Amino acid sequence: MTRLRPLWLLVIAVVAAASALPTTAVLAGRGVSSPALPPSSLITLGGVGCVVLGLGIAVRRDQRRLEQEAERRRRAEREHPETPPRRGEDAPRPSRTVHPLDAVRVVAAGQACAYAGALIAGWHVGVATYLGMTAGLGAPRVSSSLMLIIGGMIWVIIGFVVEQLCRIPPDRGSAAAASADGTDEGPDGSRPEEGYARGTH
């Protein structure tokens, strides 16, 4: 899974704004209402954003629990070196509450929020620009478009935050991504690299 790229988000926002500006002008010329989301959409934006952010926090808490358990195992091995480490089926299983695939889905949901937020914000920038030039900045549609621009930007921020919550930094990869047999190495003897939620990429 690739990381969010601010450049792509900027391109999406610019293309959406450039598309919304002539679209709004054409519809206004035909007497059709401006193609903007209603203010009630802010409730949906806020609800979905809170859910995705909450899932990201849950993944991060689960990851921290796994890191703490791995650290306790290593500390016990250092304090009692005479005790051979248990492997395979005899090794203690981490108390995982979030499955790695679910964590990856949370990352995907966060990234989808970021892309959708860039699209929503960019589109309403175009709508607000045209309506501000024709109806004035005090028009109700302009005010609602500005609020939706802020809502879209918040979605973008949530996307980046969730991505970071579900990411294992390289300097903690070996400590956090212990394999199922209780060791810090993968099946091929290699150390886990930076990735999302338990070293998945």
What does this structure look like?
The chain is mostly helical and 201 residues long. The protein has one domain. The protein has five helices and two strands. It has a two-stranded antiparallel sheet with strand order 1-2. Helix 1 packs across helix 3, helix 2 packs antiparallel against helix 3 and helix 3 packs antiparallel against helix 4. About 12% of the residues have low confidence.
Comma- or semicolon-separated keywords:
201 residues, mainly alpha, 2 strands, 64% helix
- Strand composition percent: under 5%
Mean pLDDT: 78
Spell the H/E element sequence.
Answer: HHHHEHE
Total strands? 2
C-alpha-based Rg, rounded: 23 Å
Helical element count?
A: 5
> Structural class per helix/strand content?
mainly alpha
| Order of the strands making up the biggest sheet | 1-2
Largest sheet: 2 strands, antiparallel
Helix content: 55-70%
What's the short story on this structure?
This protein has helices at residues 6-29, 41-79, 100-134, 140-165, 173-176; strands at residues 167-168, 195-196. It has one domain (6-26, 39-182, 189-196). The model is unreliable at 170-194 (pLDDT under 50).
SSE blueprint and pairings:
Blueprint: H1 6-29, H2 41-79, H3 100-134, H4 140-165, E1 167-168, H5 173-176, E2 195-196
Helix pairs in contact: 1-3, 2-3, 2-4, 3-4
